[in-house]
Amino acid sequence: MWDEAVTGYDFGPSHPMDPVRLALTMGLVRAYELDRKAEVVSAKPAGESTLRLVHRADYVAAVRAASADPDQADQAYGLGTLDDPAFAGMHEASALIAGQSVGAAEAVWRGEAAHAVNFAGGLHHAMPGSAAGFCVYNDASLAIARLLELGAERVAYVDVDVHHGDGVQAAFWDDPRVLTVSLHEHPRTLFPGTGWPEETGAAGAGEGGAVNVALPAGTGDEGWLRAFHAVVPELLADFRPQVLVTQHGADTHFEDPLAHLAVSLDAQRAVQEACHELAHAHAEGGRWVALGGGGYAVVDVVPRSWTHLVGIAAHAPVEPESVIPSSWRDQVYARTRQSGPGRMTDGRWPVDWRPWEDGYDPADRLDQAVLAARRSAFPLRGLLP
User: Mind listing the UniProt keywords for this protein, alphabetically (predicted)?
Assistant: First the structure.
């Protein structure tokens, strides 16, 4: 899913969410000719009825008003804040990004594509009635809500952004048709301060519908992969989703300026491959919708990570050791006056990690985090902790 106009989602020159990250990603996708391996399409912006699947009418009206006159943004709705400054055309750009994710979900559900990627999406913090954390409309929640509207009975959402996927969890807190799983830096040390293992869904029908793995700051490749594989595959095998929706924020990377994990590009690629394999193993027909998310090392990390994602989804994976085309590095310098990375790896491929069943250490903080998540959520789903 691509439309050049998504780069209009622009909070201003001093904001860390620089839309150049989207343009450079698409440039790298083209440099590897992945646009010839996958169909590149655009969807229309999400309309009022689609936005209302998740967002309140008064909030959508507030976004429209701030979009028309940014000086009149209502901070009661999270608009015009440091995190979410209002800008002209904000509604249009946000609705367009949401429309791409909804369009991706529709294409996968209808069998027009087995996999679909919207790396401009993954804006997982937006709430039904407010903007938050650089997110105006929650395209991930809207895509899931559209799948439910089309008749899906089981949708799994897996979020590996460094920040908790709080907006998606909130949207489906009491809906047993949706399983949300988030692996993120511990809420003690990072925004939004939620995503504790004890957050498991609403009492009653929603119990066990939310799973949270709160990782200690400093977690690196081995621990991150260990945690993912200790939780996600077993949950998906049990839930048997008809569609798998994943969010691939690149801000877990050790170079990211806004967080404290120490994950490499190579581990991010490994999780992308795992999500692809899990979709084929557990989602009907391999139905997979993959979204972007956070990521503020906008030259060195984000374009490489999401180009890997596109290649994996297109069944044309980019080799980690491949030399990045000089045409793209020229583009990077022309747009940013920075030198782009030279290869599609951080030099850690393949990443070594130990399975959860191998060498559990009760004194290890990572293992404690995994066990806390399993103990809180797994028994609610009839699984052993």
Answer: Acetoin catabolism
